[in-house]
Write a structure and sequence with these properties.
The chain is 44% helix and 19% strand. The protein is built from twelve helices and ten strands. Strands 1, 2, 3, 4, 5, 6, 7, 8, 9 and 10 form a ten-stranded mixed sheet that branches.
């Protein structure tokens, strides 16, 4: 068997409605020297059968059926079975632009970097909205360190991370993932960030391009009302990772990251809670969080830059739940 240039890793779980679209976008790539490892992570629907169907038609697809253990372990399993020189990831409900692999490969090789990162389209209600970030160009080791200090976790002008943490939209040299791919298996939220941040610790070069290569599909019901206490615990686990990352260099950025999620929670809870009482209970979990208290409420160095943020923070501090509920509904 010839060694393919690129291994595409696709974890699959309960996505029969979207999977064909994803796999078709891989089949129709203009760059053809690839293998695709499909990890059926114990899907209870027909996803596993669809994987087998594509593997029967195209031997570049390889399928591994396993018991459900989560996306991090699924990716690790696929990585261990892959043989490509370069590695990229695709989530099974998303899809690639037709020239994605060609664009990523050419960029990585032309700039001779360990990792190449790209932009993407947010697919929301049938519209493709290009994601824009402030960082573009070549970065050596010193440049990567500077990104971490400046705006890796949060950029105040863009109000989001300076560089997306997702493993998709990136092409990795295999050697850059050998250790970091194993560091996130205990996370079920933020596993991408843990792997990518640990990868940044070991690589010597990075190229960031604003060329979109990926369609990130937003589900209409993706803000389902999960158990908030469990979800917030998952948030705090990833914040604990950020807090300890690189001796606290991200401390100021982490405060804005936490505050951003607090604000997002208002809209999410207002539109998914069954009633006002449930909304209030969810908001109270945030307000009781030690991370909220430490990084936002009691952080003398934390200052909001926008009037709406100042208003919302005031409402948080004084427990104006009904006003927050109304704001969430309006937004």
């Amino acid at each position: 068997m010839n060694t393919p240039k690129i291994s595409i890793i696709v974890p699959v779980y309960k996505v029969e409605k979207y999977l064909r679209r994803c796999l078709d976008s891989i089949v129709t790539q203009t760059f053809t020297d690839w293998e695709c490892i499909l990890i059926d992570d114990g899907s209870p629907d027909n996803s596993g059968k669809i994987c087998d169907e594509y593997a029967e038609k195209d031997n570049r697809f390889r399928v591994i059926h396993k018991q459900n253990e989560g996306v991090a372990k699924a990716r690790l399993t696929a990585f261990e079975h892959s043989i490509g020189e370069y590695i990229t990831f695709v989530d099974s409900d998303d899809y690639l632009t037709k020239e994605a692999l060609s664009v990523m490969k050419n960029c990585l090789e032309e700039n001779n970097v360990d990792v190449a990162a790209f932009s993407f389209f947010d697919v929301i209600n049938g519209k493709n909205i290009k994601d824009n970030r402030p960082l573009n160009g070549y970065y050596n080791r010193n440049g990567i360190n500077q990104i971490k200090q400046d705006n890796l976790l949060f950029d105040n002008n863009f109000k989001k991370a300076g560089l997306p943490f997702f493993l998709w939209t990136k092409l990795f040299k295999r050697t850059s993932l050998n250790k970091s791919i194993k560091t996130c298996i205990d996370f079920w939220y933020g596993e991408d960030a843990v792997c990518f941040f640990n990868t940044l610790e070991t690589i010597e070069s990075l190229y960031i391009s604003d060329k979109p290569v990926y369609y990130y599909y937003h589900h209409e019901n993706e803000t389902t009302n999960k158990n908030m206490s469990i979800l917030w615990f998952a948030y705090e686990k990833i914040w604990n990772f950020f807090e300890k990352y690189d001796n606290g260099i991200l401390k100021e950025q982490l405060a804005f990251r936490i505050w951003s999620l607090c604000k997002h929670g208002i809209v999410k809870f207002a539109n998914t809670a069954k009633n006002f009482k449930q909304f209030k209970n969810n908001i109270q979990i945030i307000l009781k969080s030690e991370y909220y208290k430490k990084y936002v409420l009691n952080n003398k160095n934390f200052k909001t830059y926008w009037m709406i943020d100042k208003i919302i923070l005031l409402l948080f501090k004084h427990n104006f739940y009904l006003t927050l509920y109304i704001i969430g509904k309006i937004k």
